[in-house]
Amino acid sequence: MPLTKNEYDKLAKTASPPTKKLKNSGMAFLFGGAICALGVALRVLYDMVGLTEKEIKMAVPVTLIFLAAALTALKVYDKIAAVGGAGTLVPITGFANAMVSPAIEFKPEGHVLGIGAKMFIIAGPVLVFGLTSSVIYGLILWIFKLV
Amino acid sequence: MTERVGRYTLRLRSRPAIAGYAAAVGKKEGEGPLAAEFDRIFEDNTLGEESWEKAESALLNTAVQLAVQKAGFTPDLLDYVFAGDLLNQSIGATFALRDLSVPFVGLFGACSTMALSLGMAAIFVDTISAARCVAATSSHFCSAERQFRFPLEYGGQRTPTAQWTVTGAGAALVGNTGGGPFVESVTFGKMVDLGIKDANNMGAAMAPAAADTLKTYFSDTGTSPADYDMVLTGDLGETGSRLLRDLLGREGYDLLNRHRDCGLLIFDCEKQKTGAGGSGCGCSASVLCSYVFERLRRGNLKNVLFIATGALMSPTSSQQGESIPGVAHAVCLRANRG
Fold it and tell me: CB-CB: which of A16, A73, A77 is closest to B155?
């Protein structure tokens, strides 16, 4: 009797080792927390050197983005992310990595159709849905005069 | 001449010879358990080229040139070259062989390409359509990643069932003369799709095709796994191998301790962090055209049933929600002609 798709699906699931959810969550918590702690440390540092609140709000993400981009270019970020998982993906550093890694990858296809066009293949959807939801959110605030 | 045995198996009565063979691999493969077996190990995975696709072509070209050279021939004596790879429009193979000036038969069988090309080459020789043919294929971790997954430096995690594309190429020169090993029979397989959609679980997608072709082969030839020194699958990895044993068991065939998988031979999965094992056209090609042919030639192995499996999908079909059809082709190899 040949197996049905349903029967095979069950068989394949039993044969496939499961994702280590507990370990992955723990690592994500540690790595994500470490990146956020670094952000806080930077904030304290910039405050000490006399930057204003407005400047600090700009300087902290800029520094984190720079660090993530530099680590991506040095071929280190992906190795950290292989362990850190969502912990390195969710903070702003993950976004920087998602922009820089295709820019490096598609350089052989040229500056325009390679780097220019392919730079957004991963981050593009984040921008599209991020901007769309921010517009919807803004409209709701405006319509109901919440601000 | 070739005769049909049973439903789909072709017996090659002249037993075409593997007159020359060679395997060229990248750095990671060169650090694996089969390091001593390969003809060339490139420490630099770019092979000095500007792009990963060009690097893959250079790798395949190296394997083909070495195989021809080891057989004691020159490319102008070749009648056909059968080759293919995983890249769109098979640019790995075409650009590797464009300067070879030999009639080119491009094939696509995804990771089953080594068995597909070897089978075709052997049939051409057996039917006296050709005296000497080359069968070759390649894959490159970096060119496969950018086509099928993410940019190399993108930080992401792999699922436990994901496999690692082998940076490697293998080439075999099949001729009507030569010291062996020899090709006894070929079974081209049907596409089998049991609904697996997870592109990170290729082993599960391909195992039903491997089971189907093996069942056909055993019933066509009236043999069983016990009749072979080795039943060698291409790149089922840990998950796919487990499923293959289960599926064949249901059909009444026990693979005993005969089963080996190229994807599990080429890497030390635990130590080299290659997930469920190696994959890609170059996985079975580089293992077959080094470790396995060498043992057959020396007589350490008397016969090997080589069955390479391919997942016939593309990123487009996956994104459109299609499941993954698998295909598997079997080639029976013997140490002796008689």
Answer: A77
Task: Kindly state the DSSP code that residue B191 receives in the 8-state scheme.
Answer: P
Q: Is the dihedral of CA B103, B109, B113, B118 positive or negative?
A: negative
State how far the Cα of A129 lies from the Cα of A125, in Å rounded to an integer.
6
Alpha carbons B328 and B306: distance in angstroms, whole number: 10
**Amino acid at the residue A87:** G
pLDDT tens-digit profile of B45-58? 999 999 999 999 99
- Residues of chain B in contact with residue A24, where contact means CB-CB under 8 angstroms, are 157
A122 and B151: CB-CB below 8 Å? yes
CATH number at residue B150: 3.40.47.40
Residue at which a domain ends, from B153, B175, B197: B175
Closest CA to B139 of B173, B92, B97, B98: B92
Per-residue pLDDT band at B256 (split at 50, 70, 90): confident
Q: Which domain holds residue B300?
A: 182-334
Q: Is the CB of residue B166 less than 8 Å from the CB of residue B283?
A: yes
Contacts of B150 in chain A (CB under 8 A): 101, 122
CB-closest option in B146, B160, B242 to A19: B160
In this predicted model, what pLDDT tens digit does every residue of B104-142 receive, in sequence order?
999 999 999 999 999 999 999 999 999 999 999 999 999
B130 and B114 co-located in one domain:
yes
Q: For residue A1, name the pLDDT band (cuts at 50, 70, 90).
A: low
Domain identity same for B160 and B262: no
Q: Is residue B180 over pLDDT 90?
A: no
What is the count of structural domains for chain A? 1
Residue B311 tokens read as 């997942």
Domain final position from B175, B201, B218: B175
Count of structural domains within chain B: 2
Evaluate the omega torsion of the peptide bond into residue B181 and state whether it is cis, within 30 degrees of 0. Answer: yes
Q: Assess whether pLDDT exceeds 80 at residue B69.
A: yes
CB distance A9–B196 less than 8 Å? yes
Which pLDDT tens digit goes with each residue over A45-78?
999 999 999 999 999 999 999 999 999 999 999 9
